[in-house]
Amino acid sequence: MIRDQHGQQIYDGDGDRLMESYDHSDRIVLIPDARPSKTPDPTPRIRVMWGQHLLEDLLAGRYRSFVCALNASDNSHGIIAQLAALLPTSQWTERSITHYVQRFGDDGGVKVIKIDMDMVEVLGFLRPTDQEHLTLKDLSTGFRIVHEMLDRRTERLPSASVSFLGARSNALRDDRDEEPSFETVLRTMNDAGYHGDVYPAPSMWESAPTAVFARYPFPESLTRMRDGGF
Hints:
Blueprint: H1 15-20, E1 29-30, E2 46-48, H2 54-59, E3 65-70, H3 79-86, H4 94-102, E4 111-116, E5 121-126, E6 134-135, H5 136-152, E7 159-162, E8 172-173, H6 182-191, E9 197-199, E10 211-212, E11 215-216, H7 220-226
Parallel strand pairs: 1-10, 2-9, 3-5, 3-7, 6-8, 7-9
Antiparallel strand pairs: 2-11, 4-5
């Protein structure tokens, strides 16, 4: 029986010892940003759902609203098409979703389209038709709208969102026409007032040996290290 430094065993039997040498490409090194306190920090935070399965959590009814991206030409590669096909009471299809969002036109700027899928309400960022991708400005505008929608109707809580990274049809790009860092995406969401759960792209499950935090804002210690301090 293998126990950690505090005498606490994680797995039954020899699981702890076996997992020390478990060889798998998908690895996440998760570290706490602070120890639990008797006086919890009231700062609103985004939870980062490392290792959790978004579609399964949506189908299990863990969320009442879900934020993702849409476009007016083809949503067959988006998660919304998968969700519509899997929800037992949804009457939406990829084609009907695309046809529906086309009705909103394009008078400039990102729009947030509501799609009621019975178990969950989708809050979709409609990518402007004159853009090949979403921008950080689009993301900020969209999440400010989502924040207002959640604030005015709390029955839409709890809420989850994709990370907008690693997308094919609705890719996210920064001012250099590159995909931004996950930290930049979280900062944009947080600054816009969104404090729901965010699911990293599955490709980010191979982040080890880089350690990750399960909440945002990240601790001040990260900023000190980047500035050369300890």
